[in-house]
Specification:
Number of strands: 9
Distance between the termini: 37 Å
Helix content: 25-40%
Strand content: 15-25%
Structural class: alpha/beta
Number of domains: 2
Bound molecules: guanosine-5'-diphosphate
Shape: globular
Largest sheet: 7 strands, mixed
Order of helices and strands: HEHEEEHEHEHHEEEH
Strand order of the largest sheet: 2-3-4-1-5-6-7
Number of helices: 7
Radius of gyration: 21 Å
């Protein structure tokens, strides 16, 4: 019976689907590390596994964490596990993975390449476990100057362009039928009175992305007037014509962007650390699981 038992164990291990992964992106200083440590400190389970990229010398860190039992899960929405009247211990703590990435400007293209490789894998065996992206924004820095806004919008533009390329070549990105691929723009540092509210963050990002798009479109037109121009591989985000909006992007390529405010700074309370500032983001994660 031992070989049968071993076979059963190995088979079980291989058959269990990988945990849903959310990739944390955004310029450094936005609050990714603060968010991760807050999630870890309130998680019932945590395990860190450094994952080494095979394409670059960069490392990203994957951490398995749990969602607080009081946060509803989309796939469990009809079950009693979400019944708020039940004590926490009676409800399931759902595990997921957060993958932190270095946000320094020079490392961005490597991260985008890795994201593209993973998400565009066609084989079922290598199918990506990435089920969403969380893009961190320091909402307090956006009022300080146009340069910060340009940096954030430029990074987000590049991410969206990667997703558009995959959708155009491979088709839908979302793994769940009838849903769109989710991106959370976490408008962080809402505890500071100088922080822009999420609605303004959304509006500013949309108009800056629109500006970037126009500039790139013009660049391509100018370049294509040159007979020696090689058009291969150059694209612009969104169809030509209308002003860029996240809503339009959802219609075009099935990528849904939500801008949600919060703060990744722990509030010190008598009985430990309170993570109220990240609650809405955890609810967003729960709605994708
Ligand atoms: P990362 O580079 O994206 O990982 O950013 P960090 O998590 O290292 O955060 C950068 C700085 O912002 C640190 O000094 C954090 O303490 C601070 N910070 C992060 N989140 C918040 C927040 O919600 N509110 C405030 N006031 N500061 C924050």
């Amino acid at each position: 019976t031992l070989p049968i038992l071993l076979h059963w164990i190995i088979y079980r291990k291989a058959a269990s689907p990988p945990l849903s992964t959310f990739v944390l992106l955004g310029p450094s200083g936005a609050g990714k590390t603060a968010f991760l440590s807050l999630v870890e400190s309130s998680s019932l389970y945590k395990a860190k596994t450094p994952s080494h990229s095979t394409h670059t010398s960069q490392t990203s860190t994957s951490t398995t964490v749990t969602l607080p039992p009081s946060v509803p899960i989309f796939s469990n929405r009809y079950r009693s596990v979400n019944d708020p009247s039940l004590p926490d211990a009676k409800r399931n703590a759902v595990k997921y993975v957060l993958r932190d990435t270095p946000g320094h400007g020079k490392l961005r293209s490597a991260q985008l390449t890795q994201l593209q490789t993973e998400l565009s894998s066609k084989s079922k065996k290598e199918a990506s476990s990435i089920c969403g992206i969380i893009f961190f924004v320091d909402a307090a820095s956006l009022v300080e100057g146009a340069e910060n806004l340009r940096d954030y919008a430029g990074y987000l533009y590049d991410i969206l362009l990667v997703l558009q390329k995959i959708v155009l070549s491979k088709g839908k990105l979302s793994k769940k039928a009838g849903t769109n691929f989710p991106i959370l723009v976490a408008a962080n540092k809402q505890d500071l009175f100088t922080a822009l509210p999420p609605g303004s963050v959304k509006q500013k990002l949309e108009s800056e992305i629109d500006r970037i798009r126009q500039t790139r479109q013009k660049g391509l037109l100018d370049a294509s007037a040159n007979p020696e121009h090689d058009e291969d591989g150059e694209e612009v985000l969104g169809g030509d014509g209308d002003k860029f909006t996240f809503h339009g992007l959802e219609d075009d390529i099935g990528v849904k962007v939500d801008v949600v405010g919060g703060f990744a700074k722990a509030e010190n309370e008598k009985d430990g650390v309170s993570a109220t500032g990240i609650r809405k983001w955890e609810e967003w994660i729960g709605s994708c699981l």
